[in-house]
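Now for a specimen:

…
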Amino acid sequence: MTSLDKPPIGTSTVKWRFPDIHPEGRKYVLIAAAIALVSLWVWDVLTWPLIFVTLGVAAFFRDPVRVTPVEDGVLVAPADGLVTMIQRVSLPPELAGPHALGTEPMVRVSIFMSVFDVHVNRTPITGTIRHVIYISGKFMNADLDKASDENERQHMVVEDRDGLRIGFTQIAGLVARRIVAFVKPGDMVVGGQRIGLIRFGSRVDIFLPEEYGAQVILGQRTIAGETIIARRGIQNVAGVAQ
């Protein structure tokens, strides 16, 4: 190999590969695959549809590698999905108070995840988990505003090294029937780290401190752990509903 054939310093060959299946979903993939296999002997006309169902379950629980921006003063998206609401709201009771996010209204960015999106959620900032609060509730459409107050949900608060606290909420939807947390109070997390999962369609809300401006707009799609959702010291890129 001549010097002209050598790749530039600092580069390497990268190959695409199928995303891993998160351990939380592997048992569901195995169950779906087993049912498809049994159908070969029971009623083979269902085999191909069940194979597609198995592939769909595997795709739902996919857990791709993400590259989180290494930058101070940014919050990254906690979920893959569609930005459906950006509005100033009163804090949920579980996130209000001096030991959580305070008492003043905050800008809430809501990200809706369809069954086709990755459902592994990630922390928007590096810090320490201060609160993990699970609340049972209904299973109405997660795209509705009142789902924040009535659906099954799980609130989390993470505090950075400067004492700034960021709150976000995992909300179950029409099909979702369980919210799973991978962390507990006192755990140290790195921005973009996996912190939980919601099974089969849902929504995640993130509450922005006053010093952070939303850097996404309605209708934009976000990638968990990669999309910068807010910046410190920057105004909102679009008007915030009051």
User: Anything to note?
Assistant: The chain is about 15% helix and 30% strand. The radius of gyration is 20 Å. The chain has two domains: 1-65, 74-232.
